[in-house]
Specification:
The chain is α/β, with parallel strands linked by helices and 203 residues long. The chain contains 8 helices and 6 strands, in the order αβαβαβαβαβαβαα. It has one domain (6-202).
Amino acid sequence: MSDPDPQETAQAPEPAVDNRLFVLVLQHPQERIEPRATAAMMVAALRRARLVVGLSWPNLTRALGRRADPKRWGVLYLGSARPEVLSAALPAGREIIVLGRDGKPLAEPDPVLRGLEGIVLLDGTWSQAKTLWWRNPWLLKLQRLVLNPPRPARLGQVRREPRREALSTLEAAALVLRQLERGPEAADALMATLERLIAAHRG
């Protein structure tokens, strides 16, 4: 008898969480074969989420499968980062940075964050995420968000991250949902799924 697949073990059937903020994942084709990928599990755990695989789409509407206003959507700007120039300008403890068109943090990001209908995440390695960014110029029309995570990535225990502050796609979504949803249910469900994946790989 073959050993159980860690992804199947981690994806035990559970009711989808009724999240408010829609999560759209653009996945690089090569990430589909990564055994420690988290995007598919994340989408399965959320009621309002979509995973699309490819390198480029003409616009947000085509990627999402329905009409959407880019101004009410955010994109995680090349994954997580903790740039010193940004951190110095932020209130202590702020975990989501909203960048203006000039690349500088907005002094009052809360109105932008409250008005978001959804977020776009780029799923793949750091170089694959950069490829997705440059091949989809319509992402520049979205609100640019940078994450300032308080802790290192949990998935770093079983999958090497490019730097301490980098988060897996699932962890990035959990951080955003924890900050912007009315309750912690969606973020808690995602982190529980991640813990099962980590335990399965360790086993």
